[in-house]
Amino acid sequence: MSRYISISIVFGLLLITSCKEKKTEPLPEQPKETTTPEPPKKVLSPHTSTMTMIGDAHIHIDYSSPGVRDRIIFGGLLAYDQVWQAGAHMATWIETNKDLVINNKILPAGKYGFFTIPSKEEWTIVFNSNWNQHGKDEYDEKEDVVRFKVRPVISDEVTEHLEYQINKVNEKEGTISLSWEKVSIKFNFKVNQ
């Protein structure tokens, strides 16, 4: 019996010893992962549009607006005497729900690719039936609907981003202008009644 008591005591001591709280050293604090959120990327040629009503004619211009970003644009980035999609990425397009008279020519109601051929002395303005194309990749002069020339105006002020404006002159007439870098062009149109 004393043997059982001795075993019970030994067993009890073992049990008590194993149940004692173990002191452990705290783990070293792990460095927290810090991620700096990246600022949103600035769109270099934001997509934009302008539109207006001249009488009951709705005129809409849709384009991507590239920036100058300290570059020489006309005669530099854009070579003179070459077709330009008059914007960035996809060709700029113009849509009208009424026939327009531009430079004594009828532009029927519809949607058109808007192209220019810049040069130092004069620009060629082009309304092309193929409005849905990347840049000037598919430009074909045979698809031109209206084509005419205008003189550019040179300014001392820089227009950083390409900008189109449609301005109402009266209920039957308006102007369309394009400005970028130090150059602007403008032409008149009439709503064909």
UniProtKB/TrEMBL annotation:
Organism of derivation: Flagellimonas profundi
Organism lineage string: Bacteria, Pseudomonadati, Bacteroidota, Flavobacteriia, Flavobacteriales
Region (Disordered) location: 24-44
PROSITE patterns membership: PROKAR_LIPOPROTEIN
InterPro entries named among the record's database cross-references: DUF2911
Domain of life of the native organism: Bacteria
Name by which UniProt lists this protein: DUF2911 domain-containing protein
